[in-house]
């Protein structure tokens, strides 16, 4: 199966290189892409300058792909991976314990895979995840929040093998006068919707991180449904 994917950048990348990128990105070092041309252009202009949406064909045949947004995985698996790589988190009395619990009971070793698919914890999305880990919002509110702003999924090439399965097809320019504002507007809409959602009183059946830890909830627990 072949997919068309895009990578937003301030320069043209005809040959993506394995082993580059920060270890503190969502899934560690890798080549971060999206199926959305519009999102790629927004990411390309993230610093307020013009950029490019580099276009590629990714041949997924013979590649091991893990999609953290599909069963048997749940949002806590994604969050455990995120807490493993992202270094800055809100300080609270339970954040450190929460991160340790998530990594012990929900962490998925993605190093065995070639490609990772999952949420992009960018801007507002990362703040939503932080609120859950610090005990401010319930699991149910986090799940709803991750669809606000329609930031979509990211496709990340993380193995050397994956980089041999990608073919450069060209690029489209991204004007910061359009896409920088569009990116900020998308994030602003997500934050506004989140504030409204956050102010809604939690249902007694909703799970907070303390409930998950006290109840020793792990993968496959029906309470996560």
Structural overview:
By secondary structure, this protein is α+β, with helices and mostly antiparallel strands. It has one domain (2-224). It is 36% helix and 19% strand. It contains eight helices and seven strands; from the N terminus they run ββαββααβααβαβαα. The strands form two sheets. A four-stranded mixed sheet has the order 2-6-5-4. α1 (37-44) packs across α7 (176-198) and α2 (75-85) packs across α3. It is globular.
Helices and strands, in order, run as EEHEEHHEHHEHEHH
Form type: globular
Low-confidence stretches: none
Summarize model confidence as the mean pLDDT. 87
Give Rg in angstroms.
18 Å
Helix % is 25-40%
| Spatial strand order of the main sheet | 2-6-5-4
Summing up helix and strand content along with how strands pair, one would put the structural category as alpha+beta
Spatial gap, N to C terminus = 31 Å
> Largest sheet, if any?
4 strands, mixed
The count of strands amounts to 7
Number of domains: 1
Total helical elements: 8
Strand content: 15-25%
Q: What's a concise summary of this model?
A:
The chain has 225 residues and is of the alpha+beta class. It has helices spanning 37-44, 75-85, 95-105, 124-133, 139-145, 160-163, 176-198, 209-214, and strands spanning 2-9, 31-33, 51-59, 65-67, 115-119, 153-157, 166-174.
